[in-house]
Amino acid sequence: MKNWVAGLCALLMALAMAVPASAADWKKAETRHFVIYSDGSTSQLEDYAIQLEKFDALLRLVFGRPASEQPTRLRIYLLRSMGQVEDLRGRNIAGFYSPRVEGSYAVSNREANDRGLRTLFHEYAHHFMFNNFGIPAPAWFVEGFAEYVSTAEFKSNGEWIFGYPQKDRAYSVNNGQKIPIEALLTSDVSEIRDGGAFYGWSWALTHMLYSDPKKRGDQIQAYLREINSGTENLEAARKHFGDLDELESNLRRYVRGSMGYSKSDLTLAYAQDIRITDLSSYEGELVELTLERIARYEPEATRDKLRSLAERGEGTAESWYQLAEIEFALNHNEETGYDFSAAEAAVDRALALDGNHVRANLLKGRLLLEPFDHGDDPDPANWATAREFIGKANRLDPADPLALYDFANSYLREGASHPQMTDALEMAFSLAPEAAEVRFAYATQLAREGRYDDAIFLLKVLANNPHGDRGAKAVIEALTKARDSGGVASIRFEPSEEEDESTGDE
Fold first, then answer.
1. Is 68 in the same domain as 113?
2. Model-level pTM?
3. Among 69, 100, 153, 220, which residue is least crowded by beta carbons within 10 Å?
């Protein structure tokens, strides 16, 4: 009897281990501006989709931004809890936003309280700013803006609330580190000991400036234009915010008082078309593994799981492509000798299953170009062959920013020119202005054409990034020197894992 029970227990344990971790029922919601993945209920997913589209419409209404005719939809992954987000990114992270040319995405949690939705609004605010505010902003405003707008609420009776005070940020302001106004205006979050205080004071200053009934943010717009015309940050602040000591006193008094907010029942013209699809268990597992890949979560283990998934039955072109991408990333280093044979085999399997897979064609093109950077005797014919794959991808999806970027970048890597390079990068930038790779490549091309001021302007957004400038400040310095001396600046951006980190929030 004992042996029978022990055997049954062993069998049950084996079956439990055999069930994929992604046995959850994943669903996909598609709207005008978003593609949302969730393993929660259909009704909850639909509610999140509606809330997000209303939030986009509210931001456009408040800040006077027209709707795009062909928006690039943001991918969003809604995980069950903050703990699952922390598993991907680290402690005290409720959500994050990752801007990238491969496809920007945001991750949030769907906790029962409003924390998950507020986090999601914060992350989308970053995406909205990149895509709709044409001028670079300092770190305090980047985070302050996202915090300020993230408390939006939409009532069932059609009423909406905007700019509602954040209790947790107010607490960190009143009980955390007191940041001098000059430090707040000129620092990024990594330079402040108490990150929560930086978010809190940035939110408080933004809230105060937008809540002035006489100016309604006019000071902020004038200040941003001033610093982007070349005026030093503090000088611009004094010009448009007044005496900084007085500004600091007013801010400290403001956070101790009763903060106001806006409330209205004005109809929001939001996109109401929502299509929800139940994914198969295979598709759901691929969604989870794709997220693990792009978030760089345990890459070796993720690679092994992707290989197992791709080899299950005949696999799919998408599963083989995802495997090829992670094989490429894992072997893109000196330790492996830049051996991309596994990536090449996987992408070839993807293309054999679907020769029109856009991203597989692009990866094939990039793989053909790698020997020019790391090989001993690259075949010159690879330039043309790679561009055939890239060109095919562009024809299949003319609005894919990665295809446009790869086309132009192939010539930048070769040190060659093509009459359509600038147009391709300009279009890629219009589709994915948030992607550092595109911004650097476009700036590089503009500098090659002698358009230094335009190149510098593009890079200022990265230079002001609250989570690190990715080398943009050094490049701006080189471009400024070349412009002023009449010389030539040579710049090239190669995003590393560290440079491609996403934006997290505490």
1. yes
2. 0.89
3. 69
